[in-house]
Design goal:
This protein is of the alpha+beta class and 324 residues long. It has helices at 57-66, 73-79, 87-98, 117-125, 138-151, 164-177, 197-209, 213-224, 226-229, 235-243, 277-287, 293-303, 310-314; strands at residues 11-18, 21-33, 39-43, 49-50, 182-185, 191-196, 246-250, 254-258, 264-269, 315-319. α10 runs antiparallel to α12 (293-303).
Length: 324
Amino acid sequence: MHSALEITDCAELVRVTRNSIIESRHLGIAVVLGPDGEQLAAFGNPQALVFPRSALKPFQAIGSLRAGAELSSEATALACASHLGTREHQALAESILTQVGLTVADLQCPLSWPGDAKTRQQMLSGDEPKNRLAFNCSGKHAAFLNAAVALGQSPETYLDPAGPVQVSARAAMEEFCGPIGFLGTDGCGAPAPQMSLHSLATGFHRLATSDDEHAQQVVSAIRQHPWAIRGKGSANTLVAERTGIIAKLGAEGVLGMAAPSGHSVALKMLDGSQRGTDLLALSLLAAFGALDPEDHRWLVGQLVPEPATAGARAAGLELVGVDF
């Protein structure tokens, strides 16, 4: 197994303050690439190895498309999603399955309640049990299954790393991000590659600038249907809606973004926290001219709620090393 991310690889990226006194600190690594793919800035060691987790879904979706999955634009966006499990998300995931004669029973992702509070309450009030469609990776799994049918692979084996669906997914990830040395298992049961953070940023840069038809399908789908990538009001959705920037979170404090200009940013927090990650990534893009100042201000306003109480007003967030 390859080495884990070490504290010595990390820099201080985010500070939380109270009355201007530092209360909490988040360490991690971040890297920014320019339109030509060259490194513009790095905090910590960008060659440190990480598990990008769900930040790799756009590349896995490319693998599914190349394997023969027939996905509409909305379904392509959902294949890239870490969605909140709304009724709309669940219905779209199910439609990807029924299109090839499969059902929810063929999914091998975990049973879950929706991340969306309203939908979760509706299900609880209606005595509906957890289901696999509500799991945030159900779109990716449905796309894998759609591809398995196209390839003639047994649906029961669609997560097999040596099977054709996952071989296609890995080939796409390596094409865009670079070689994969270690393959673990993600929380949803799918293969989870380990790679450097720089490799992840390279993948997002190539995704935004590629003339490959399947990469363009993924980028276009996310921009046309940003609700599907996460959910109404969420950071990934707001960023794509407002700016066309492809933003994709990954579990344990991972985030990748790619601007239409080709600038990209990737970051990983050592403690796995998502606190401040979107603001940090957006500020890094803004610092290098890849995000319009007005759009940046609008997004910050959406992602940082107006403090309503004295206690809330006493708190603050500092993005270390970033000039606004």
